[in-house]
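Duplicate of earlier report; Branched-chain amino acid ABC transporter ATP-binding protein/permease input re-posted below.
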Amino acid sequence: MSNTRTTPIVTIKPELGLHRWIWPGLFLIVGLIAPLALPGDKWIRVAALALVYVALASGLNILVGLTGLLDLGYIAFFIVGAYTTAIFTVNTFGPLLEANPLALWWILPISVLVAIVLAGIAGSIIGYPTLRARGDYLAIMTLGFGEIVRIVSINWTEFTGGAVGIRNIPPLGLTGSGVVPPALTYYVIFVVVAILLLLLASLIASPVGRAWVAIREDELVAASMGIRTRRYKLLAYVVGASTAGVIGVFFAHMNQFVNPDSFTLEDNFIVLSLVILGGAGTLWGPVLGAVLWIFFQAVARDFSVVQEHPEFRTGILALIVIVLMILRPGGIVSKRLELTRARGGRAAPPAALHSFDASDDPRRTDEPVLAVRELKQVFGGLTALESVSFELRRGEVLGLMGPNGAGKSTLLNAVSGVTRATAGSIEFYGERIEQLESSAVATRGVARTFQTVRLFWDMTVLENLLVGGHTRLAGFVPKFLSPFPFVRRGERRTVEEAEAVLAFTDTWDCRDRRASSLDAYQQRRVEIARALMTRPRMLLLDEPAAGLNESETRDLARLIASIRAAGVDVILIEHDMDLLMTASDRIVVLDHGVIIADGPPDEIRRNPAVLEAYLGSDAE
Ligand SMILES: Nc1ncnc2c1ncn2[C@@H]1O[C@H](COP(=O)(O)OP(=O)(O)OP(=O)(O)O)[C@@H](O)[C@H]1O
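Output:
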């Protein structure tokens, strides 16, 4: 069988030079001259409001666009920020500010810090229980949370002033009192939003951003690369919430009052629409979406039909989003996000794999690499595995065969932590791993591929491999600090390693190709390369030859042999008997969840129980 390409080849190279400064340059220039160019104070106020929505949409984009987590209660974090500063500057420090208005310049940073902490806590409160929820459940939970915060703001009268709200919040002037020109307020908000965008952009360009996109693309695979998915999802909530909290503070000072009418349920949908309109998952899409919408809304307000029916404005937004989703599903700025700028060489480096020399192995013991004992897996009424016991020894390729539905993939899922076994034990280098999450199993040195190839389709091949190398890119905290040289050095080293692995798996030519534009054999090899990037000690291959032709299968056998020679032990599930018999040192045969044979390929070939199970009546 030969492979046919179904999608055109898409090559994506990082933007270098001046090109990458177009959007930030445009934002800075337009942002700086806007108050000078706009006709009058009314429009400067509109521009300041647009900046508030830029920050809101960019923060929500971290959740919805990058990480793929729907949040319909996002405005709650904005409310937290706005009320924090209102309570601080009016209730707590009000008398002090009256006596000394300049005190605003130290009270404001405190307000911002407290807003970050409170909104961050609110973000983790909503984030934590929703970590296991997706889709509809997540949407409803976030919507509910948003409403709880709004209702609390209405009813907690002694703190929030109830329906009346809090008035006389100091303006964003240099003196902290008096009448402040709108242009000054605008520039303060512009600086804040520019800083927020810079922080978000550097976070997105760091390994954290790549981990978020990996979670959005395929959470299960991201976990099997060692990414602690719950931690990163929680981080996305905290970052998104803190962004809304900070801009909430400045919004309150801009308006000089807050009350429950300042924030409606509808605002959640508007901000979400702006993210989608501009381009979810892009850096500049939400910025553009917010600016266009707020200005459009301000223009529309002058039309009599909109004055009579203000609800038309939201209706128009909904209509625009629907039309855009049909014509341009990626949003106005549908430009793909760059997930690394690090570049290696132009020519293929020497093919190499981080090899494990058993003699230096500090964990070297006489124990087997993997010992599975009495493993049982029950799905509802179906027993997929029944008391399965076997071992993988050092330096071995272990074949796993059995008819369809025998339980092979179920076994691999249990070993790699994708599913939790019902009973029994799994030891990897003497350590019990059957209760561990798949990310923890991966960090201990177990990598895997999937029966149906599961790449991060929207990423390039190199980016796929960098996700595989994620756990080595410094600790959790430095992963945030992408602009700093030591993180970039780490990234460059990982890129070099990825390129060596690409050469090793003979996929160097695909380095900058979008994964979705690879042919079937390239996909298989890239999936193996990505697994090898985790520097595994054991590699689990689930039917890697499915869909390959004869010569590709022979190549694959050679690749498996060189992986083993590099010190990685392999468990190979395969229906292709030639490959299984040539590549394996020993074969375990499963049938109906039970091991019926375990021995060298020659013995298995002649084993009557195997012939009976595999070939049925043809065995005779
Ligand atoms: N998550 C699940 N929930 C319910 N049943 C499952 C689940 N996963 C697997 N099964 C069932 O467990 C049995 C074993 O399936 P498994 O995929 O492990 O077989 P396999 O040996 O890998 O087969 P194949 O060679 O066709 O991939 C099948 O009957 C399957 O329907």
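The pocket of adenosine-5'-triphosphate is lined by residues 379, 382, 384, 402, 404-410, 451 (CB under 6 Å).

Merging into the original ticket.
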